[in-house]
Amino acid sequence: MLLTKAEMRRAMLGGAASLAGIIAFVGLAVLALLLSSGGSSILATVFEPYILRILRFTLLQAVLSTALSIVFAIPVAQALARQRHFPGRIWIIRLMAVPMGLPVLIGALGLIGIWGRQGIMNSALLKFGLAEPVSIYGLSGILLAHVFFNMPLAARLMLAALERVPSEYWLMASGLGMRPLSTFRFIEWPVLRSVIPGIAGLIFMLCATSFTLVLTLGGGPAATTVEVAIYQSLRFDFDPGRAVTLSLLQIVLTSMILGALSLLPAPKDEGMTVGKPVRRPDGRLPGARLVDGGVLLLATLFLALPLMSVVLAGLRSDLMKLLREPIFWQSAATSLAISISASALALLISMTLVSARRTALLRGSGAFGRRFLFAAMGGASSLVLLVPTIVLATGWFIALRNLGNASAVAPVLIVAINALMSLPFVMRVLEPAFIVHKHRTQKLAASLGVTGWARLRLIDTPALFKPMLTAFSFAMALSLGDLGAVALFGSDSFVTLPWLVYSRMSSYRTNDADGLALILGVVCLLLTIAGTMGPARREVAVHG
Q1: Distance CA 471, CA 398 (A)
Q2: How far apart are alpha carbons 344 and 472 in whole angstroms?
Q3: Are 390 and 484 in contact (CB under 8 A)?
Q4: How far is residue 486's CA from residue 316's CA, in Å, rounded to a whole number?
Q5: Which residues pair with 77 in a beta bridge?
Q6: Residue 301: strand, helix, or coil
Q7: Is the alpha carbon torsion for 389, 395, 400, 405 positive or negative?
Q8: How would you class 438 by CB atoms within 10 Å of its CB: exposed for 0-12, middle for 13-18, buried for 19 or more?
Q9: Cβ-count burial 221-237 (b if 16+ within 10 Å, e if not)
Q10: How far apart are CA 353 and CA 376, in angstroms?
């Protein structure tokens, strides 16, 4: 083996320490929930009409949001796939990536600016004699917001599947003179049918665990999900027993969703192809161009108008007044410190887990031992999907409430929770790059005797700088825009930017909220963009 015994020992010890830390942090939160309420009281509470109504609404809005996102994504993906030379096509695709890097609270504010009581759409429709035809609050608002965030994701995934269709299929369709309906039935739908279950499962998971959107746009007890009910039970009612029951119910719900997702079939390979990309015959028809242009125009307006609303409303606010307020700089410093710490922690944990997973594959005590370690360290990074952030925060809130003031350790807890929240993304960015880099450089480094700190400084860091920057910047954007972890611990002395925006919204200081939202949104988008930019000169020097 090219790894020395010392390197293997360090890698395995680092991975084991990270694995133990993740399990302990999540496990203690879950244990605190289990110990805070007896089994009989939990069962009695679960079957309360209020709890059943919340569970029913959670599932209902998730099902409807998923269905609407999929239904609207199909024509958008079709139009983008058919019109490969559509003017501005690349910018439409880039626009669809913006909601993924935008804090949820900022998107909600933009939607309120368009669809709210005084929003552009309702104001326009009022002129036609319709009194507030669209309500942004309650079930309709939650569905609208979920479609805004999830339809672009579904459309991009479907577009990627359609673009993998071999060019020979389109040549055959052109030769047979197939009409658009036949093309959809025999070529597009089989491809979409293979990827829709996985896309729908992912969106359903996101909607079932939605917190910020429902907290902002929910219409009271009639439009409350399990996660929001957990927050309300502790923050307003201070009913720890109900919060524990709801938290355990949420864990069961996410476990069932993740279990169902693991049973979904993998997308099928569309077959080998040797031809060049061919302009699709069904996209040349004048009617198809008109329809596709209309679909893309509507999708662009649906996504761009809320973003423009955030920008315009923010510019109309008194930004200079906000920048002079001490609370702004206090919350900005708190958010920045938390996001940098959480991102660095996520990066450190990911690197140790990735290194240990590779070492476990190279040499282990046996086939079963290698598979177990590999799976355990990979699964640990996704524990936050099983135990959502609001549930983790609730568990630690319950555990610390008997020890005095829990707010004293709130920053540490929020850093840890935000690090776990971004860990799945960081792992997915770093692991492929790490494996490829080690495969390319391991033999040369071993032959030159470059090990330890020298290897890390001279070989690993320069080559892995770009994926590390991508992971770090996106983790910072996620942490900066997060409201879930701070929702339980936020106070007058502990304020983050998202919590400050939400507080100004709740106190009807909408101008201030708009200005703060613009600042926060611009920072998060800049961080997301920074993650896709690499130091070109440095890479040339390393590879040259």
Answers
A1: 32
A2: 7
A3: yes
A4: 28
A5: none
A6: helix
A7: positive
A8: buried
A9: eebbbbbbbbbbbbeee
A10: 10
Strand locations in 180-257, DSSP E?
none
Q: Please state, in angstroms and as integers, the Cα–Cα distance from residue 90 to each residue in 83, 101, 296, 301, 527, following that order.
A: 11, 18, 12, 16, 21
Total Cβ atoms within 10 A of residue 13 = 12
Buried b (16+ CB within 10 A) or exposed e, 182-219: ebbeebbeebbebbbbebbbbbbbbbbbbbbbbbbbbb
CA dihedral (97, 99, 101, 104) in degrees, to 10, reads -170
d(CA 289, CA 307): 27
Helix H or strand E segment including 190: helix 189-208
Is 127 within 8 Å of 238 (Cβ atoms)?
Answer: no
Return the closest-CA partner of residue 397 out of 22, 26, 24, 29.
29
Cα 169–Cα 171–Cα 175 angle in degrees, nearest 5:
115
Segments in the chain below pLDDT 70: 1-4, 37-45, 129-133, 174, 177, 219, 265-285, 362-371, 402-407, 446, 448, 451-452, 531-544
What's the rounded Cα separation, in Å, for the pair 181 and 318?
Answer: 53
If residue 421 lies in a helix (H) or strand (E), which one and from where to where? helix 410-448
**337-377 tens-digit pLDDT:** 999 999 999 999 998 988 888 787 766 545 566 667 777 78
Helices (H), 285-325: 286-316, 319-324
304 vs 95: CA distance, rounded Å: 8
Contact residues for 495 (Cβ-Cβ < 8 A; gap 6+): 327, 330, 331, 334, 503
116, 118, 210, 263, 499 from 56: Cα distances, Å: 26, 31, 15, 24, 28
C-alpha dist (Å) from residue 498 to 185, 216, 385, 469, 520: 46, 12, 22, 24, 8
Per-residue pLDDT reduced to its tens digit, 203-262: 998 899 888 899 888 867 778 899 898 888 888 777 787 888 888 888 888 888 888 877
How far is the CA of 30 from the CAs of 39, 241, 249, 251, 466, in angstroms? Answer: 14, 14, 12, 9, 36
CB-count exposure of residue 340 (10 Å: 0-12, 13-18, 19+): middle
What does pTM read for this prediction? Answer: 0.83
The answer to whether 209 touches 254, Cβ cutoff 8 Å, is: yes
Closest CA to 418 of 471, 468, 475: 475
Residue whose entry in the numeric block shows the structure tokens 């829990």:
406
Nearest CA to 303 out of 99, 49, 64 is that of 99
Residue 74 near residue 223, CB atoms below 8 Å:
no
Which residues 6+ apart lie within 8 Å of 80 measured at CB? 86, 89, 92, 93, 155, 159, 296
State how far the Cα of 486 lies from the Cα of 230, in Å rounded to an integer.
14
User: Which residue type does 516 have?
Assistant: L
SS3 491: strand
